Amino acid sequence: MEERIEEPQCPECESKHTYEAAGMTICVMCAHEWDGQEVKKEAGFVVKDSNGVVLANGDTVMVIKDLRIKGTPNSVKVGTKVKNIRLNEEGDHNIDCKIDGIGAMGLKSEFVKKI
Questions:
Q1: Read out DSSP for 12-79?
Q2: Could you report the per-residue pLDDT of 52-101, keeping only the tens digit for each?
């Protein structure tokens, strides 16, 4: 019986449609190329913004929608820049941050975009 070797998923678009050529692994869907020998599997969780861009601790993001703050008449306005975010695995708000004029709070990644 012949054993089939599966090609790795694309780290950009997570497509399973990849092939190897000249020592590089190439994604058919997005044309991303990477060294197939140096694929690093992240042991953590991945947080993506509203556009699908992977976020990391220390990134700067922008709010894409007015967000009401529970228990107060205040809200976070569209276009507010949030610097030095921290990713959080626990709870439904996966970004911890401090917003000027408001203070510490949690945001959902689906309402921000990386800048």
A1: TT--S-EEEETTEEEETTT--EEEGGG----SS--EE-TTSPEE-TT--EEE-S-EEPTTSS-EEPTT
A2: 888 999 999 999 999 999 888 989 999 999 999 999 988 889 999 999 98
